[in-house]
Every structure is written in C-alpha cells, then in structure tokens.
Amino acid sequence: MTQSDPNASTETYTTIEAARLMGLAVRSVQLMVDRGELQAWKTSGGHRRIARDSVHRWLAGRQGGAAAPAAGASVGTAGAAAAGAARPARVPRVLLIEDSVHYQNLVRLLVAQKFPQVELQVADEGIAGLAMAGRLQPDVLIVDILLPGIDGATLITSLRSNPQFSASRLLVVTSLDEGQREPYAFALAGVPVVHKPQLVTALPPLLAQALAAGSAGAAAPEPT
Amino acid sequence: VSRPRVLLVDDDASIRRFAELALDELDIELVCVAGVAEALAELHARGPAALVLTDLMMPGQSGHDLIRALEASPALRGGARLVVFSAGVGGSAAALEGHDIWRRLDKPASVAALEDCVRAAVAAGDAAPRPGGTVGAPASLTDEELRAIEAHFGGERSLYVAFRDSCVLQFGKDAQAGEQALARGDLAGLRHLAHSLKSVLGTLGHDGQAATSRALELACAAGDAHEAGRLWPALHRGLLRLARRDGGD
Predict the structure, then answer these.
(1) Is omega for the bond preceding B108 within 30 degrees of 0, making it cis?
(2) Where are the alpha helices (H) located in A65-198, listed in sequence order?
(3) pTM for the whole thing?
(4) What is the Cα–Cα distance from A15 to A28, expressed in whole angstroms?
(5) CB of A123 closer than 8 Å to CB of A95
(6) Å from B109 to nearest chain A CA?
(7) A150 - beta bridge partners?
(8) How far is Cα A81 from Cα A6, in angstroms, rounded to an integer?
(9) Does the predicted interface ipTM exceed a cut of 0.90?
(10) Is any Cβ of chain B less than 8 angstroms from the Cβ of A24?
(11) pLDDT for B4-41, tens place per residue?
C-alpha cells in the first residue's frame, strides 16, 4: 500500500507521529505499513507519509471496535486489538534486575528478537532495581535472586508484598540448581523460576504469559 | 535500491527518539538499538551497516567494547564508518586513540549537526574495505558449540553466536575481576563470579570450564582459600583463551 504521492503531505503523519499517537514502536508502524494495515505514501525523498484517516480509524478500532475498515487499508490488527483491553495502547515495559553482564546481554538479545514491542530496562543491582521498579511500574520484573548487596529472599519478598509493585508480574532467573534454592523456597513459592542454562528456551514462553496476563488484567487505570 | 543502513547504539531511549526525529527526512534506514549485544546481533543477522553511531558510556558493555569487537571482526564491520556519539568524549579521547573512528560527535548535538554528520558519512560511501570473511558464513562452530546450540538455544544458531560474541568481550574483564578478588582474599566476590560463570560457560557448551567454575564456587563457599587458589588459575587461563577466541576447553 506504499506508493508515490507527494501531494498527500497535508493529510498525513510521519512514521514517528503515527507511532506516538498509536502508542507503538516506530518499527511496528513501519511493519504495519509494509503489511498494508495502514494507508501510506512515500515522498520523493523516499519517506513514509501515513494517511491520518487510517491512523484515526485504527485508534477508533482499538477503543471501540466499531470503525469500518478503510477503503484500501486493512484493519486486521485493529480488529484483533479491539477484542482486547479498552485502554489506549502503550509499550509494555519489562525491568531486568541482574548483575551479570552476560545474562543482561542474553536477555537483551532475547527480548529484542522475540518481543520487539517491549521496552526493556536493566538495573545491575538490587537496591537500584527496587528504586527503578517503583519509578517505572513495569509490567514484568525479571529478577536474579543472587545479587550483591541485598539478600535475595528479602528482595523477592519485598517485590511480592509491597503494594507498590502489585501491578508487576514477577519472574525469577537463577544459576542456583533446585537444591541450592531451598533457602529461598518460601520467598519463591508460586513464582515462575528459570534456571539460567535453560533461559533461552524457558524464558520467552513465561514472559509471553506474564505480558498477556498483565494486559488482560489491566482494565484498571494506568498508575501515574 | 536499498537505502544505506545506519545503526545507532545508545542506551538512552530519549536519544534514540531524538535521532529518529532528526534523521526522519534522510534517505536512510535507521536502526536503533539499546546496547552492544543487540548491535552485534543486528550486524550478525543483516551484515555490515553503512554507518555505526555509538555512545561510549552504557551499562554493561560500553562503546569501547563495541569498537573493539568491530575491529576484531572485519566481517561485521565491513565498510562501515564509525562515529562516536557521546557526551564528554574529551575524557575518553585517549582511549579512542589508534582506533579507526571516522568522526566524533559531542552530545548534546543539534538536529543539524547529527543530520550533517550522517549525511556526510553516507555520501562518503564505504570506508576502505577490510579483509575478512562474510557474515553468516563463519560456520567454524565446534562440536561442543553445536551441541550447546541444540541443548540450550533451541537450535537458534544466530542467537548463540551473538551471545557468544558478547561473552567474548566480557571474559577478559571476568578474568581480571577474579584475579583482583583472589589477590585481596575476597572469597565472597570470587564465589559470586564463579557462580555466574558456571552458568555462562555451561550455556555456551564449555562443560569442562563450567565444572571448574562450580568447584571453585563450592571451595569459596566452604572458605577454602587454598583450594580456590588452586582452581582459579585454570579457569583464568580458560577465560583468557575464550577472550582471544582460541577455543574452549
């Protein structure tokens, strides 16, 4: 659905403007254009210009599900989204509290590859991580239990019991094997735990579940 | 004709957004990533970019690490021009000496300065071609690496290679941190390092070194400085070998 029409600029958004309005990453909007889900033109310089109407229809579709499909533009994504939460779209946020640079990198790689819509923040120690969790209100917290400067059980218990973090789903990653985790059994009861050697295969499905559970349970207003 | 690909590496989301806005009118494909590991993964997956703009100070691995990684891997660097886009480059100027940096751009930069820099880099075309292989065809994976890809990476070879390359950058620092911990008798610090390395090395398929790390972790936990001092040198040598990409166990 991309074509040249230099006269269309007055009724269009740039990709960035559209992304902001839609609460999506720029890359997601580019993909929607490429898939024909938004009506778009290219300027003579090769830049996308997205029809305002198609953006507004997508937004209306997300909020009420009643918008009619545009002529020449599919709203498949809008239709699917309309069945979900009624709140405006926003970027899901994940906070990783992990001191190992190796595993920070591995989680970054995994999230970038499998969850490109997610904004990942990283804290490399527990106290800073608690502060960031309070400030960012992430949808999901991924926490290593052995961090310098803070007792792992205390950290997990704080994250689970403090109402400040109640909107965040918790996932634990650890190099501790089952036997070594016994001292943390009480704190970890009911929390999904990923053993680091299995992180690549075990984390993505758990993160997908946690993100889905977060969006399904997010009918309440966003924390401010 | 595909547009020149420009890779921006910056952990600050507001800088990435600024660059997207500032460069929106240029006929380029801008790819923004938040860290060195993602940058290497992007280059592994799609081949060299026309231009790499990198911040220096980032959590975990720094822009210096990325510069070293690109110098060590001509197949990833290709003809890319390299721009350091950082606040306070002056303080790090000495560390950049001798590296093939095309230009330095100080933050905060104006829209015009960033745009001019990218426009000039792209217009200048490829930097001098460097000798080296091609991306996607390193294929020199060892049997133990292939086993690890099946056992720990669900068969995803490119993810394994990206993770391995990011680890290579870090192993030299791990070796240094362990030396320092042992020298000051910091068994708790050495235990924590060994605990982490046990998983990293096992995930990469270096089972022998993972076992050494595990033994070192247990020795440190038991307060056995003699045994820790006996085990560390082998692990230290192994880390330095991996940092030089001389192979694993």
Answers:
(1) yes
(2) 76-82, 101-114, 126-136, 152-161, 185-188
(3) 0.66
(4) 10
(5) yes
(6) 20
(7) A147
(8) 31
(9) no
(10) no
(11) 999 999 999 889 988 998 898 888 999 999 999 999 98
CA A115 to chain centre: 7
- With CA atoms as reference, report the closest residue to B203 among A184, A173, A119, A192: A173
Give the tokens for residue B76: 């990833």
State both tokens at B92: 């790090």
Least-confidence region, from A102-111, A163-172, A213-222, B25-34: A213-222
Coil vs helix vs strand at A25: coil
Could you give the C-alpha distances from B217 to A146, B147, B213, B229, in angstroms and in order?
13, 25, 6, 12
Highest mean pLDDT: which range of A2-11, A183-192, B120-129, B194-203: B194-203
What is the number of other CB atoms lying within 10 angstroms of the CB of residue B222?
12
Which of these, A147, A23, A141, lies nearest to A93 by C-alpha position?
A141
Per-residue pLDDT at B236:
96
B-interface mutation test, from A175, A181, A198, most B Cβ less than 10 A away: A175
Amino acid present at A147: L
A contact test, residue of B173, B199, B209, B220 with most A CBs within 10 A: B199
Say whether residue A30 is in contact with chain B using an 8 A CB cutoff: no
Q: Which residues of A touch B162 (CB under 8 A)?
A: 109
β-bridge pairing A12-13 and A48-51 = antiparallel
| CA-closest candidate to residue B121, choices B140, B145, B97, B105 | B105
Which amino acid is located at A64 in the chain? G
